[in-house]
Structure formats: structure tokens, C-alpha cells
Amino acid sequence: MRIVHDADEFRRAEYPPVRITTLGEFTLERLIPAPSHEGEGPPRYVRVARSEWGNRGPAMALLKVLLCSPQRRSPRSEIIKAIWPDYEAINAAHALDSAASVLRRHILHHGEIGEMLITLRGGGETLFKLPDQNRLWVDADAFLSQASKAMRAEHQGRNPIPLLEDALALARGEFLEDDLYAEWAQGRRHTINGARHRALFKLVDLYLKGGQASLAEEWLFAVLEEDPTDEDALCRLMALLAQQGRRREALQLYQYTKDLLLEEHVAPADYTRDVARRIKQGLALREQRERYTASGGQVPLSLVRNGEPRWKREFSSSQTRRGNAPHSGEVRYIPLIGSRQGVQSGS
Questions:
Q1: What are the DSSP calls for 141-204, one per residue?
Q2: Model pLDDT, residue 292
Q3: Contact 239, 334 (CB under 8 A)
Q4: Which of 48, 190, 308, 329 shows its CA 20 to 30 Å from the CA of 143?
């Protein structure tokens, strides 16, 4: 590893001069050149104090709009429409020029390494553009790139698990959490959330296929700890716990998520309620079997019909619907969990 000492070397450096975190707390970091007397060592980044950019709303909005734009570029007209939709044309153009100047001179300024906000002109339109990952590293883009590498690795017959783990380690926290309802951020947010779920469920499937149910459980719990209302992750975890005989724990998780959703005046989705209903039925059948065993085989008359215990009949029919039951200790993947397709609405 080479330590960077001057502006020319920054351009060739392995480490980008500016790093931005958009997942979770928004942060800006700048690379600090190492003094020549320190010799070789790891690069050092220093976080930019929020006081330096927290009160520069228009410039930060411009930065974030560009981060959400394809190839980090956008025409002036589209930026104005996103940030100042109600401004008169002249006032909006002046506001954009002022925001661009602040972004260049104060927020993305880093020595003399060239422009970090690039102006492009052509076809009668002026565009603003941010540098690529080599100069302006963004965690969301790093996550998407790593997740894509994992999928390609699997397609090529290589083990994607390390790449998926690295990708998901980056994807902690909500994208641009200070701008949850900004219309210009929604497209990028949906892309990131979709990729995060694909990577998570692919990793869970691979863990289960390899007999590593505890690792799958660990990742699902981590996701729910971050977002307890993630019903897709909840259903996958409930199914996994139920298959291990931990039905009460699964139902407790469901109740916790249900309570949180009801606080927001939202009910759990039909497929989530259906999963919970099936687990409740399985728990009731198990308790009936336990009572039957504890009573020395004396079955209450209320549970007997046509000479056969009701729990045994219901259990047999439920297994017929699902297929053969897994052997003791075996964890099987249920395709319908984590997907809204193929699930009948439950009560």
C-alpha cells in the first residue's frame, strides 16, 4: 500500500478522497494524506463535522439528488423540478447555482484534486455530475456492486456466500433516513431495498441448504432488529423457528410485529397472518399430543370422532397437504415464505 502525499498522487490512489455513507446515519469523510515521515500504513479518513454541512440544505439536497440519479448525473431542469418545484424559473436557477457553488467549495472540496461536481454541456442542456466510486465512494453503490458480484459468482459456479455476507454488511440502515418521504429518493430506495431482500433471502437459502440454520436465523434476527415491521423477513424467521419446534417464539415475534403495525394503523399482510395461523394450528396439535401422552393415552371425548383422536386426524391431513413431514432435526425450506405468491388469505 502506498501513502499519498500530494494532489497528483491522489488521482492515482487506491483510496477515494471522499466517502459518503447513505445507509443509516448520513456521513461524509475525507481522506487525510499521511505525513512522509510516517512511512507506509493504512489510509486515514476523518469524518466531516455535521456543523459543516448540516445547515447547507440546498447544497445537500443537490448532492443527494445526484446520488439518486442514474450514473450520478442529472440535467439542471430535473434538479430544479425535484428540489424547487414551486419556485419561479429565475429564482430556481439562481438557487441551483448557489447550491452548486456551496457543494463545490465547502462540502466536496478536497485540496486540489480537481472538481468533485462536474458541469457538462451538450445538446442545449446543462447537466451536473458527480465522480465515480474511485473518487467519491458511496456505501449504497458499493453494496449494489457487491450483491451483483455475488449473483454472477453463483451463475459461474463459484461460492457466493462470502460476497453476499460482505454486501449485506454494508446494507445496514435505511437509505437516506433523513429524506424518507422525498419523492426524488424513492426510486433509488426501492432499488436498494429490493437488492437487500434478494441478497438476504439468497444467503438464507444457501445457509439452509448447507445445514447452517443457526447462521440463517442470525441474519434474519439482525434484519428484524433493525426493522421489526419487515414482514418478509419475519415470515422466513417464523417458518425457520417453527420447523425447529420453537413455535411459541415464532408467534411471539409475530405478535410483536403485529402490535407495532397496529400502532401505525396498519394490519399485517394476509400472507403473514396465514403463516401465523398455520403455526398456531401446529402448536395446538402439539399441545393436544402432549396432553394425550400425559394422560396415559386417555383421549377426551371432545377430541374423538369415529373412533380416532381428532389431533391425529388433523395432523395426518395437514401433513398430507404439505407432503411428508421432515425428519427430526431436519430444516426444510418452505417456498411460499418470503413471497406473496401462492399464499391464500388467512383469517
A1: HHHHHHHHHHHHHHHTTS--HHHHHHHHHH--S-BTGGGTT-GGGHHHHHHHHHHHHHHHHHHH
A2: 62
A3: yes
A4: 48
Better-scored residue on pLDDT, 333 or 217: 217
- Taking alpha carbons only, the member of 225, 243, 309, 238 closest to residue 271 is 238
- Cell 443527494, residue located: 64
| H or E, element range at 119 | strand 118-122
- Asked whether 107 and 53 are in contact (CB, 8 A), the reply is yes
**How far is 197 from 276, CA to CA, in rounded Å?**
21
Dist CA 157 CA 155 (whole Å) = 5
Rounded mean pLDDT of 152-169?
Answer: 96
pLDDT digits (tens, 9 = 90+) for 201-233: 999 999 999 999 999 999 999 999 999 999 999
- 115 has pLDDT over 90: no
Residue count of the chain, please give it. 347
CA separation for the pair 170, 33 (Å, rounded): 25
Grid cell digits, residue 254: 409475530
**Predicted confidence (pLDDT) at residue 176 exceeds the cutoff of 60:** yes
The Cα angle at residue 192 between residues 191 and 193, in degrees rounded to 5: 95
Per-residue pLDDT at 26 exceeds 60: yes
| DSSP SS3 for 32 | strand
Helices and strands (H, E) in the chain, number of each type: 13, 9
Coil, strand or helix at 61 = helix
Residue boundaries of the structural domains of the chain: 228-347
Question: HSE on the CB side for 192, CA within 13 Å?
Answer: 26
Distance (Å, whole) CA 103 – CA 100: 5
Exposure b/e, 68-104, CB count within 10 A at least 16 = b: bbeebebebebbbbbbbeeeeeeebeebbeebbebbb
What are the pLDDT digits (tens) for 235-244? 999 999 999 9
Decide if 12 contacts 135 (C-beta within 8 A): no
Sheet holding 136-138, edge to edge: 44-47, 27-32, 18-21, 136-138
- What is residue 218's three-state secondary structure? helix
